Amino acid sequence: MILFLLGTITVISDTPDSLILLYNAEYTVDTTNGIPHIKLTDGECDLPPGYPELPYAVYFVRLPEGGGNVEYKVLEKTSENITPPVVKDVYRDGGYRTVDYKPSPVKMEVYGKRAKKGRLIINPFVKTGNNVEVRKKILIKINMKGNWFRERYKTPVKVINKIRGRIVSLHAKAMPEKGGMWIRLKFTDEGVYRIDRSVIEEAGINPELVDPEKIEVRSGYRRVFRFNLAFYDSLKELPEKIPAIYHVENHNGRFDDGEYILFYGVSLEGFEKNIFKRFPDYNPRPWTDTLMRFYYNPFTDTNVYWLRLDGEPLKMNKLVSGDGEPVTSFQDTMHFEKDSLNFSRSGLAWTWGCIVLPSDENTIQKKFHITGLDGTRFTLRTGFYTIISGQTHHVTLRVNDVDTTITCMSPLGFYAERLILETDFESGLNQGENTLTFSVDADKDEVYFDFFEIIYTRAISDIHNGRVWFPDSGDRVIKTDKRNLALGIDDPYNPEELTYSESSGGYYYNGKGIFLCDSLLKPLEVKIANPVSLWNGGADWLCIAGDMFTTHANKLAEWRSKHLKGFSNPEVKVVSISEVYDNFSYGVADPGAIKRFLLYASQNWSPPPSYVLLLGKGTYDYKNYTGLERSENIIPIHTNGADVGIFTLLSRNPTDDVWYVDFDGDTRPEIPIGRVTATTQEEAEEWVEKLIEYEKSPGLWRQKALILADDEYTSSSNNELLHTRDAENTSRYLPDWLKPEKVYMVLYPFEGNQKPTANRDFMSRLSSGAIIGFFYGHGNIYQLTHEKVLTLDDISSFSNWRKCPFFYLATCNSGYFERPGERSIGDYFTLYPDGGSIVSIAATR
Q: What are the boundaries of the signal sequence (predicted)?
């Protein structure tokens, strides 16, 4: 029994065990200038160069966990006595090749994890000599394997079989409700923080209504969010309770003067907290470091702890004094680093200096300060990157007047590891000011200096608000004057209060780490917030907006609530990026919070999001090292690269918003996502107004397509029609109601090195409006074509107002929106308020 008809494919049977289809090839042969072109009703042609231009059909099917295998039978054949053109190289060769092409009638590509999909490719055409065989009717059977699962979110592709199976929730967890009022505390320095009546008042809460003995202290962010999905599955739902010291005298249910809470706050610094990924199958050289490991968190220096009022607090354990080995000094590691240079203008890695070899300027000097020096021996550890693989380097390390030279080799292969050199000195370190001199010689390379560390014996009496750390546990008495507070911090999220012994003159502890506190700290920001506000909800259309853009996002949401294609009564929602951080990265500004949020919403919201908009620019400069007046990192980007150096300027270190909605690791988006790269409220307001007016604006311009093609003009070009051919292919596949307007650079004369008449013609045609636009050719961040048919400056001359095309830019680098303080052709084309494009699809990094 036929279940339903979808275009040229009919579903004969759809059961959990199999899917049976009947495909009927509907096609026409159009001849233009003596060249036959086969057009398939449901087809496309994207074959590699040298293959005949034969279209094929693509359909998507849902598959069970075990996937499926395809069987087929060709029921009916016919033939056409034609020779189709060859893809790509038709003009270069000056004629048509006679390459035979005999693809399998049906094949299926399977992707996804438990809730799988199949990309069913049907090839109705076979070329043999001057004849095209047409597989007119094909019977297809897909045998299903395994259990069925399905997603809760709507997929961006249409599938032809039924939705079946239970909802799969691999990585998201349904989070329990947790009531009460929450206060968010922000800080940067490690130390002991004091919460008193004034802090509660700063949050805008009457301390008379707060019982300090019911305040929980909580912390959730332990390390930078990794890029793999399994990491998100390991995260706790709520910030965890941590022990605190409660000094409450009156026990009257209110926060009185003189009462306070003390807790130990951990900073985000440390290599162990900022590891993104390792390569377990790769053995680095002894002097190289694991890729993607940083001392400073690349995204923020600000950690977040939480107070939950009306809870059940966890009180800190106090250890009794004991006997142990008296110690007055320890091996301390002082880390020196200043992230100030990003030569690749991309990625996560920042450096402190650069040497380009060969050069006489092969030295970097850094001043540093040492206190509490107790002995002469010390160890110097330096970290730096090199660019050229397998190069021998002679590195001289000098501390004040003492130096040593080390010969090492740069890493092999594509792993851009940091080289780590460690050497011992018998003397040379001064109390107070010191100078490190780093010199390197090599035949040719770029060397990027990253950090250095001094490991030396330091007197415990020199530590005032800091750690004392030993390599192993043991009974010790830390000989020092009595401090405001001393904590055992082997587990920094479960510290223990230490007791001072007057008789032994110190603090007893049998662990590795101690924090000595002389002065108490106060949070940098105190604010009421809610880390569970997004656990319940639903939205067909979802906008994540920069905090300053929520008003404009809500205006767009109001429009979308009545105008969303495919939905008669859509649910819409706007959330701020701060709310996303509060709910899904414990308040810390980690971009992984966006992925965790969208993953959770797709699995637990009703309805789950079908469209996601990011409203706000993001940059690789997460912490505003470039010193802009206002950071442009409004909605952070995702990048997984750490390559350094000028050679990566236009490659490597990809920027990818799709990662936020790729939930099964196959690099395909599970939810359509886009970004508006606004940096100011004015830009956000203008774009929202532009979009709404665009959707309201009818006219004949909606029946025009603008196609711009480069002439491939370069000093070494031998194929002037390469991009023209791509443009013509696009033109042939346009529907009949859409009129193409063509600006082909090959038809315009040179005036010097430019073609100003092409520029004027393109500007004129765009200003008259079009519903869609295409560009094929060369370009970069600032211009299209070598002859500058369009530059960033030209965009401000557009006058197409709301007759804005959806523009596809098939060129390099035109969508590099992530550079701070800059615009690319792609994003300014869209943001320009008086015209340009309504949306640009352009190449990001």
A: none
Sign of CA dihedral 198, 199, 200, 203: positive
Helix/strand/coil for 762: helix
Kindly indicate the confidence band of residue 683, based on its pLDDT and cuts at 50, 70 and 90. Answer: very high
Do 25 and 159 reside in the same domain of the chain?
yes
Q: Hey, what are 85's tokens? A: 């053109």
On whether the CB atoms of residues 621 and 820 are closer than 8 A, the answer is yes
Total residues belonging to the chain: 845
Tokens of residue 828, six digits: 């300014």
Closest CA to 146 of 171, 115, 106, 110: 115
Q: Which two tokens mark 23?
A: 């495909």
Is residue 319, in this structure, part of any structural domain at all? no
Contacts of 283 (CB under 8 A, 6+ apart): none
Residues 752, 763, single domain; the answer is yes
Cα–Cα distance between 267 and 482 in angstroms, integer? 24
Only one residue has tokens 């109001």, namely 558
CA distances from 417 to 27, 79, 283, 344, 386 (A): 54, 58, 11, 15, 8
Any alpha helices (H) in 204-285, and if so which ranges?
Answer: 229-233
- HSE, CB side, 13 Å, CA atoms: give it for residue 26: 8
- List the domain range (segments joined by +) for residue 502: 461-517
**Which amino acid is located at 514 in the chain?**
I
Lookup result for tokens 């999220």: 493
* CB-count exposure of residue 505 (10 Å: 0-12, 13-18, 19+): middle
783-784 and 572-576 beta bridge pairing: unpaired
Supply the pTM of this predicted model.
0.83
Q: Which two tokens stand for residue 756?
A: 């100003």
Evaluate whether residue 688 is within a structural domain: no
Domain-terminating residue out of 459, 481, 508: 459
Q: How many CB atoms lie within 10 A of CB 230?
A: 10
Q: Are residues 618 and 752 in the same domain?
A: no
pLDDT of residue 4: 39
* 495 and 396 within one domain: no
Comparing 228-242, 376-390, 464-478, which segment has the lowest mean pLDDT? 228-242
Interatomic CA distance for residues 372 and 426, integer angstroms:
17
Tell whether 687 is covered by a domain: no
Given 275, 308, 341, which residue is the final one in a domain?
308
Task: Specify the number of domains making up the chain.
Answer: 6
Give domain status of residue 684, yes or no: no
Q: What is the rounded CA–CA span in Å between residue 783 and residue 779?
A: 6
Based on the domain organization, do 134 and 97 belong to the same domain?
yes
